Amino acid sequence: MRGKGKETTPTCSCGSKTNLKTSWTDRNPARRYVECANGKVDGCGYWNWYDEEMCERSKQVIPGLLRRINRVETENETLRQQILKLQKKAEKMEDKVKNLKEKLGRKKVKKMVIVLFVMAWTIVNASMWIWGPNKGQKFGRLQIDGY
Predict the structure, then answer these.
(1) String of b and e for 112-130 (b: at least 16 CB within 10 Å)?
(2) Which of 30, 45, 91, 107 has a Cα at 20 to 30 A from 38?
(3) What is the C-alpha separation between 80 and 77, in angstroms, rounded?
(4) What sign has the CA pseudo-torsion 97, 98, 100, 101?
C-alpha cells in the first residue's frame, strides 16, 4: 500500500493524469488500480495496479464479506420498504379511527337529542295529566267526595 495522506497517481503515457479506481472482482477484491483519465477510447489505454497483490486468505475472505454486506443491505432495503408500507397503513387506520370517533360523537349527540325530546315529552304529558283539565285540584284526577 502507498503512504498515508493525499495520494498521487502516476501520469500515463499520453501525458494525462490517471484515475484511481478499485477492483471488486473475486480475484482482486478491494485492490486499487490506475487508468488513463481520458478513457480507453480517447486516451492511451494506460492501466496498472496501484496496490500490491493481496494474500490468498484476503482473496478468499473479502468476497464472502462483500456478499454478506450486500445481502444485509438488500434485507435493510426490504425492511425499509415494509416500514413505509406499514406507516401508510397506520396513517389510513388513524384516519379511519378519527372518522369513527366523529361518527360516534354525532351518534351520541343524536341520542342525547332523542333522550331530551323523550324527557320533554314525558314532562309535558305528566304535567298535562297532573294539572291538565282539572286545574286547581292538588293531585289531578283524585277526587274525594264530601270533603
Answers:
(1) eeeeeeeeeeeeeeeeeee
(2) 30
(3) 5
(4) positive
Specify which of 18-27, 81-90, 122-131 reaches the highest per-range mean pLDDT: 81-90
The sheet carrying 18-24 orders its strands as: 18-24, 29-36, 47-49
- Among residues 36, 44, 41, which one has the least CA distance to residue 19? 36
35 phi and psi, to 5 degrees? -145, 160
| Site of grid cell 494525462 | 16
Q: pLDDT tens digits for 17-55?
A: 899 999 988 888 889 999 988 877 777 888 899 999 989
In angstroms, how far is CA 130 from the centroid of its own chain? 67
Determine the residue type at 64.
G
Which residues, including other chains, have CB under 8 Å from residue 20's CB and lie 6 or more apart? 7, 9, 32, 33, 34, 50
